[in-house]
Amino acid sequence: MVAAAPATCVNHRRRTKVATCTACESALCVDCVVRTGVGVKCQSCTGVKATKATKATKVTAGAPMSVGSSRPRTASGARRRPWATALVAGGVLVLAVSAYGLSTRESDPVITEEVQTAAAAFTERQSEFVGPGGQRIGGTLTLPGAVVNDGRGVPAVLIVPGLGALDRNSVVAANPPDAARDALVSTVGGVGLASGDALYRDLSEALARSGIASFRYDRRATSPVPVREGQKLSFDDEVADAKAALDLLGKRQEIGAAPLAVLGHDTGGMVAMRVAAGNPRVKAVVAVSTPARPLGEVLATDLGRSRGAAVADAFRAAAGSLATSGKAPPADALPDILRPIFAPGQDAYLASLFALDPVTEVGRVAAPVLLVRGGGDTSVTAADTDKLSASLRTGGQVMIASTSANHNLTLAGGGHEHSNTATAQVTHRDADVTGGLSAWVKANLAT
């Protein structure tokens, strides 16, 4: 018999549990919760003091919250008085800490932190869902500032991370010469090899400014969602994670029955295509920097350009051996630059990844598809987007960013500054293409 999860705090036996530490799974009351960038944790696992009860609003699990409201109701139904108006004028205001029960974990509520910008351009709510194997995955729901609770809900986009994702906000910076190789090594090794680029956060903010909600989530095998000992990566699990995230998004009260779109970056574009192909509620798909060629060929071409023909040939031979035998060559048989790619224990994952055919995947999507690429991206070329475009079932559009925009739509230098987050580092993103992307999504989700 499985023991029931404790309903009281591990430190305060007379206090009701409102959350669970994501590291040690201890039950926590509101005074013992420590909010971190990678989820809720206890004091023992963080080494910092817990949030005081006087700085948070206590909300019962599943307590009603009106869409667009910046002040959740307390258990008694009364609204809490604004206590930090001055902070709104200065930057970011933490408005509430609320306990929400997920449909997959009704007995284990999740602390949700609600943050609103000074200009009220958008509101963010943190949540969590459960993927295959019971893997808990955190995500951020971003809502436009002017949400009207008219019962129709807010159209929303699921943002699917791709290779090299560091967390729900950022991806490995697309710096040559080995950007594609570094992104894959970061994925199979669970570490970031370069500075992060907050592409996913910026896309969420751009969508919010167009009146579109979005949900972005942590990719498994990253620091926020580490793999368990002996756990293998799986492309099917990545698809299942996206489906679970889309299911959570579609059931949110703020979204209601509004139409949905799925946006994927890099290999996340193929995940988005698979998710959309079997879901009639998905009315649009956006594939950002998704090639038409199999990933193995993309990597071989990039390695040939940066490291020479001999390295490219060695990679093709290793990938061919993996495809035919199911096993990669021994590390000592590979050039040093290739060894981190063929991480021990990840042969099946790499084989499935290298075998994916983006042209076949996009041909199964019934909804309109927007193909986006950076004009300066050397990994995804005009030939890639032309080939994908020719395979669309319903039709769509190709959108090209500036000639200096890379794989992450980041400009090489100068350009438009794109960030509304007071504490975030300013990134030179191509605002023209992110704005155009948002407008296309809005038009295709119009009811």
CATH fold node name of the largest domain = Rossmann fold
SSE topology string:
EEEEHHEEEEEEHEHEHEHEHHHHEHEH
Q: Give the radius of gyration.
A: 22 Å
Number of beta strands: 16
**What is the helix fraction of residues, given as a range?**
25-40%
Distance between the termini: 49 Å
Spatial strand arrangement across the major sheet: 5-6-7-8-12-9-13-14-15-16
User: Into how many domains do the coordinates divide?
Assistant: 2
Major β-sheet, in short?
10 strands, mixed
The rough form would be described as globular
The level-1 CATH class of the largest domain: Alpha Beta
Stretches with pLDDT under 50, minimum 5 residues? 48-114, 414-425
**SS-based class:** alpha/beta
Percent of residues in beta strands: 15-25%
Q: Kindly state the mean pLDDT as a whole number? A: 79
What does the model show?
This protein has helices at residues 43-46, 85-90, 179-189, 199-209, 235-251, 268-277, 295-307, 309-325, 347-355, 358-363, 382-390, 431-445, and strands spanning 19-20, 27-28, 34-36, 39-41, 92-102, 105-117, 122-130, 136-144, 156-160, 171-172, 196-197, 213-217, 260-265, 282-288, 369-373, 396-400. It has 447 residues and is α/β, with parallel strands linked by helices. The chain folds into two domains: 19-74 and 88-120, no CATH class; 123-294 and 356-445, Rossmann fold, CATH 3.40.50.1820. It has a ten-stranded mixed beta sheet with strand order 5-6-7-8-12-9-13-14-15-16, with helices on both faces. Strands 1-2 form a two-stranded antiparallel ribbon. A two-stranded antiparallel sheet has the order 3-4. Helix 4 (199-209) packs across helix 12, helix 5 (235-251) crosses helix 6 (268-277) and helix 7 runs antiparallel to helix 8 (309-325). The longest helix is centred in the middle third of the chain and has 17 residues, at 235-251. The protein is globular and about 65 Å long.
